[in-house]
Amino acid sequence: MNKKQNQEKITKEVVITGFGGQGIVLAGSILGKAAALGDHLESTLVQSYGPESRGGACSAQVIISTDTIHYPYINRPDILVCMSQSAYEKHIDQLKPGGLLLIDKDLVRRMGKRDDYFSIPSTRMAEELGRTMMANIIMIGFLTAITHIVSKNAAKNSVAVSVPKGTEENNIKAFQKGFDYGQAVLKGREKKAAGRTGAIS
Q1: What is the CATH number of the domain that holds 115?
Q2: Number of domains, the chain
Q3: Among residues 13, 16, 14, 12, which one has the least CA distance to residue 2?
């Protein structure tokens, strides 16, 4: 996303959803901080929990803008990140037409025909790193690579200052893993598209 100096006005609304215990609100906070402190944009964060915090529904609404944000609540997100099936089912109909869907490949089964989506096995990747709790950080790395909604440096620095002391290195590794995966997915799509163009011409 362009910075304020570039004059172009851009506002992006992001909803990150899952269940309590996945670090959903922390993910939203990292994204909002990256925008405000790292990229010098405006950002807001609204969090909501279901009846129980751990295991219940949980979501973080983040608005990032080059302009002043007057209303922090989101009805129709531009980007929807789902880390549980129930969160997907609850929020998928709210996604704007043409909006971007990101899901945890192993925890969310898509329904209906939505072509424009990206998936990453973030929980499985976190388990491979030895800590399931870092799935949210992997997802933030993936989101950063796919959407460019915040810069990589801003997001990485935000991770470092937001996670518990002593876990910074592991969390930055998790962020990088998600980011690399996102870049690989984009490259794969580009190759496919180029292959199709080549076949036509």
Answers
A1: 3.40.920.10
A2: 1
A3: 12
Residue-range definition of the domain harbouring residue 86: 4-200
Q: How much is the pLDDT for 4?
A: 46
Which of 1-10, 69-78, 127-136 bottoms out in mean pLDDT, i.e. has the lowest? Answer: 1-10
Q: Checking phi first, is residue 130 left (phi over 0); if not, alpha (psi -120 to 50) or beta?
A: left
For 98-129, what is each residue's pLDDT tens digit?
999 999 999 999 987 666 799 999 999 999 99
Q: Give the end-to-end CA distance of the chain in Å, rounded to a whole number.
A: 33
3-state secondary structure 26-48: HHHHHHHHHHHHHCCCEEEEEEE
What gap in Å lies between CA 103 and CA 181, rounded to an integer? Answer: 13
pLDDT averaged over every residue in the chain: 91
The answer to whether 171 and 159 have CB atoms below 8 angstroms apart is yes
